[in-house]
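Quality-control log, excerpt.
Job 1 of 2 completed; input and output follow.
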Amino acid sequence: MRVEIFWLLVFTIIAGPAVQAQGLIEAKGIGFGAGVGAAVAGNRLAQPKKPVLTPQQLKLIEAKCASLRQESSKKEKSGDLLGSAAALKELGAFREQNLGPRDKQAQESFIKAAAIFESQKAYVEAEDTWRRALANCSRRNGPGSDESVDLLEHLSKTCNV
């Protein structure tokens, strides 16, 4: 018993608080898996940052975005709502890829596309698109934010159909 206390004391002094929590939980056989992972999970510095782009790159990206918006609008006017939603989903993916995974307009494109997919009863596509909108929202505002409530409601409705 004294040897265990001695080693526990040595471990407490040497290790940092996160490693200490992990070691104590595992030593007692509780096995919650907390510790280092839990300590760094809230680290906002690990979040991907918005890319630095030159003005020329921004012009090219905006031209492609305008082209995708125009394509979506043209398809919507012609009655091809699924094609319009696919173009909006592509626009959201393009914006995330080129302007960063926390782009607000990418989320808006995903939301519009998901709503159209849902109205056209394309539930598989709607579910995937709601998930992408929710992931974007979580990256920008943190998981469980107030803004994500509506997205979660739509996602749950789509999954239960």
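Job 2 of 2 completed; input and output follow.
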Amino acid sequence: MKKKILICLKNPFAIDNLLLEIRLLSKSFDITLLTTNYLLNNNLKKKYKQYKEMKYIKSVNYIPYFSNRLSRSIKTIIFTHVFLKKLQKQINFKNFDICFSDTKFDIWQRIIFENFISKKCIQVGLTVDAVLIPLEDFKKLISGDDVMKIVKNLHKLRQDKKIKNKKTSYLNRFQNFINRQKDILLDRRIISKIFYGKEFNHKELDFNLLETDKFDYKLSFFYSSYYFWNKIYKKNSFLINLKNDCTCDESSVNKKNKAIFISTLWSEYKKHEYPINEKIQNISTFFQLLREKNPHLNQLDFRFHPEEDEQVKKSIKKEIINQNLNFINFMENNINLNELSCNYSNAFGALSGALVYLKKFCNNIEVYCLRSLSEEIYGEYYYLKMINEGVIHYDDINNIYINNQQFINKKELDVKRYNLDEFIFSILN
């Protein structure tokens, strides 16, 4: 009988980058997917339905966790608990041998780990993106600062609590207060007590580390996140190498006539301090630089971030038309990166996990991260986020390349990358 794996990820788009791994693992394991309705669309549902029909996964369920983007109404909070109770009757959670999850922070994950799965089930934390902590703090970590000293000054791994935010309006502060009370008082205490006879209050490091209670193991797909979590998990932390089905060889690269631009959220740039036309010009200029190296290039596919606002898309498309950049083609953002990576000789953009995934999924694609599109968002140490991933960091302001590996010694960089199936088989034996 096959061993059983449960994968719990909040973002269904994150599952997209695991589809090849899931296909391969399905030969030896029964796989159940559990995710939320965050940015969920019909294309994703269709894709996972096909995976179920092809018996790559046993089932997939979408928790009605959000009412709108990342907000939760009282109605949605109640629906989440009702849905989980029904799911508990449909799925025998006690039979799972391994449970993968991105955090233990959201209440639906807490319920699964503390109430649903067996104590014998191996709990594995899965970090599907690069390091989340501010890169100024990551630089301090590399320089030798204590990891827990850094963690205790963070809010949800991302924001340094010592840095004061700009004052928000009284209305926003009141809305934030109401949202906190819905989460802490209504969701985790009152409704949880009704459904489970217990409360799921936040624990000591929940708002710092997103997990007070550790997983049995921590897996990371990015070196920077591995470097961080290895300081906490030590021997139970592993760097995972995602497999690909690339058939490209070096001779075929120069024959490809397309490059791809991976766009970040344009709202990340400081409002009213950046002209869209300047950013578009930087994109165009770098594409022309690539064409000098590869004369076959005649098309640049432009991929928007999945969360991008429709009005912003219209503004950018209008500016590209105004600049007469007819070599740019706008593409759908719901195509799996693994499926499209081998169509391109080059990929570039602002700092993003998508750039690294493209590099992982094709053996012969050159991937560039541009300073002019990244530094404004991530600060002067932006290049540390994608350290040791084969991404070329290009300072297109000064026309120089950046060696982002100089800050960590070679012994630490030369860490073993395990295949996911190799890791799973090792912990089950």
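Post-run check on job 2. The chain has 18 helices and 17 strands.
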